[in-house]
Amino acid sequence: MIGSSAIGRVREDLAAAKLRDPAARSGLEIALLYPGLHAIWAHRVDHWLWQRGYRFIARAGSQIVRWLTGIEIHPGATIGRRFFIDHGMGVVIGETAEVGDDVMLYHGVTLGGRTRDSGKRHPTIGDGVAVGAGAKVLGPITIGDGSVIGANAVVTKDAPADSILVGIPAKPRARRVGEDTRALLTVPEYFI
């Protein structure tokens, strides 16, 4: 965890935040004031502990971070590189969730389960996915790479790559050539 690779990951996280948040002014501001980054940095430590069998300490760490940031990431969740949570309050990521690289979540997102069964019960989110504010992605489903989930959508079924998912329950449609993820999340057509 400590070393040049950890420093490289932190730099990567700062660059991803700056790229995805037009309000970001400096790396120092991002590092000190962005709770989404604090949550993911702590998650990396908690996940490392979880994988080595220090489950109580890992869960305690995740609960302290939840208390401090309002973001709950279970230490068992697998999270990729350049992950960014914008604003973050109310984000919940369950134990068996798998999140790819270059994923962005807005506040109030839940990557949750629909059953109390053991085993895989949380979603798998592909690379380059953006999830709008308040969206719920529930169950052991897969969201394909490059997809966008609109604000307040409730997703309970698999979606292929490059899908746009809106509604309750969310229904996917194919992304049009040239559509920009950031623009999609701010166009009123995609809000519920």
Task: Give an account of the 3D structure.
The chain is of the alpha/beta class and 192 residues long. The chain has five helices and 15 strands. Helix 3 packs antiparallel against helix 4. The longest helix is centred in the N-terminal third of the chain and has 17 residues. It is globular, with a radius of gyration of 16 Å. The model has no long low-confidence stretch (mean pLDDT 89).
Furnish the topology, listing elements before pairings.
Blueprint: H1 4-20, H2 27-33, H3 35-51, H4 55-69, E1 72-73, E2 78-79, E3 84-85, E4 92-93, E5 98-99, E6 104-105, E7 110-112, E8 124-125, E9 130-131, E10 136-138, E11 142-143, E12 148-149, E13 154-155, E14 163-167, E15 170-174, H5 181-184
Parallel strand pairs: 1-4, 2-5, 3-6, 4-7, 5-8, 6-9, 7-10, 8-11, 9-12, 10-13, 12-14
Antiparallel strand pairs: 14-15
* N-to-C SSE string, H for helix and E for strand: HHHHEEEEEEEEEEEEEEEH
Distance between the termini: 41 Å
Largest sheet: 6 strands, mixed
Q: Beta-strand level of the residues, as a percent range?
A: 15-25%
